[in-house]
Amino acid sequence: MINNGDITQGVHHASTVLLNLPTDFRPAIVIRRAHAVAAAVPPQRRSLAAVRSLHEVLAIETER
After folding, report:
1. d(CA 23, CA 10)
2. How far is the C-alpha of 35 from the C-alpha of 43, rounded, in Å?
3. In the 8-state DSSP scheme, what is residue 1?
4. Secondary structure class of 2 (helix, strand, coil)
């Protein structure tokens, strides 16, 4: 979705999937993939609220 230009929907989907996964299904590879989704957002679009929300979700995951 992000690569096709739908930044908001792409990061929202990533956030939703990550938040809905049980903790046991969030191994490091899943978190790394979520970080890759965030990194795929063009720099000029990283201030979007949905992108900031994904970064907040990732910050919570990193603390666990």
Report:
1. 22
2. 14
3. -
4. coil
Record the pTM: 0.86
Delimit the domains of the chain by residue range. 7-63
Q: How far is CA 11 from CA 6, 47, 50, 60, in A?
A: 9, 12, 6, 16
Q: How far apart are CA 62 and CA 9, in angstroms?
A: 23
Two structure tokens written together for 61: 């995951």
Give 12's pLDDT tier (boundaries 50, 70, 90). Answer: very high
DSSP 26-41: --HHHHHHHHHHHHTS
Q: How far, in Å, CA of 8 to CA of 45, rounded?
A: 9
